[in-house]
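A.,

Following up on our hallway conversation. Structure tokens first:
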């Protein structure tokens, strides 16, 4: 119980430190941890069985072996410390798993990543138990090496670890790195707009540089002047568009658009839409286009 208390206090303290305030934590309780009130979920494409198998095999293998170790640690062969360690690991998995079943959860992936740390010891216990039960040391050693290789390889090739790499699957991907041309376009167009510009959410990160923004509250050619165009493009509504330049990357015309942790594919011609709304092109470098009404 002492370990659980320390864990809860530590997580709460980290929340306050990372967020800088308590109001967001209160809002989550008021929302009932309803995901629909936190972010917009838009299905992007159907994922086939093979892709699902690649994405989840490593996770299922890890949890299956870890649970074997947890059951051993809470049995008569364990002690109070092993019971506490296994309970912490199982609780973190439960927060993520039952949260998804009930639809009341926040940032599920973070709990899963923490559970990997908490369940690492039970996983080692499970592997050792199987190793000790095999009489042939050669076969036992081969099993350990093969298991570690399969586990590591299956988790490395999952979409979680290769979110911008399309080698394993042919599904559309979001490229998180920017080309030199895109960075040049951003810097050039923001000068044309006098520090004001519309970009997609991911492209906004180009503006977060030490020489351009000192804090999130700066108003001197900083992040506050970089506006988001994602929702206007998704809704096909430019009624709230202010007279600032708009940068449309060629990347988002051909691949998914990252809208507040959600991936969507725009199923229409964005460039034709802008032309129809009398938005003129003022810049073209091949990788990015700038428009101004």
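Then the amino acids I'd put at each of the 293 positions:
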């Amino acid at each position: 119980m002492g370990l659980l208390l320390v864990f809860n206090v530590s997580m709460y303290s980290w929340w306050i430190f990372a967020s800088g305030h308590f109001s967001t934590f209160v809002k989550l309780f008021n929302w009932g941890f309803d995901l629909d009130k936190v972010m917009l979920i838009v299905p992007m494409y159907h994922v086939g069985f093979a892709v699902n198998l690649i994405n989840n095999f490593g996770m299922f293998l890890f949890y299956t072996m870890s649970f074997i170790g947890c059951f051993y640690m809470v049995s008569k062969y364990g002690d109070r410390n092993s019971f506490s360690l296994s309970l912490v690991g199982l609780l973190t998995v439960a927060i993520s798993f039952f949260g998804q079943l009930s639809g009341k959860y926040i940032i599920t992936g973070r709990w899963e990543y923490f559970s990997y740390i908490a369940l690492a010891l039970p996983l080692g216990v499970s592997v050792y138990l199987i190793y000790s039960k095999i009489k042939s040391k050669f076969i036992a050693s081969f099993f350990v090496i093969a298991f570690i290789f399969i586990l590591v390889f299956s988790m490395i090739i999952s979409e979680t670890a290769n979110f911008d790499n399309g080698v394993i699957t042919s599904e559309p991907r979001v490229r998180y790195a920017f080309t030199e041309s895109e960075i040049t376009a951003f810097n050039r167009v923001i000068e044309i707009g006098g520090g004001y510009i519309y970009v997609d959410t991911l492209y906004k990160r180009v503006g977060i540089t030490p020489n351009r923004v000192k804090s999130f509250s700066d108003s001197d050619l900083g992040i506050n002047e970089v506006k988001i165009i994602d929702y206007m493009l998704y809704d096909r509504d430019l009624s709230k568009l202010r007279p600032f330049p708009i940068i449309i990357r060629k990347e988002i015309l051909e691949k998914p658009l990252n809208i507040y942790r959600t991936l969507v594919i725009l199923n229409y011609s964005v460039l034709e839409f802008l032309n129809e709304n009398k938005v003129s092109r003022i810049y073209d470098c091949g990788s990015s286009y700038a428009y101004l009404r």
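The chain has two domains: 31-156, 180-292. Curious whether your intuition agrees with the design.

B.
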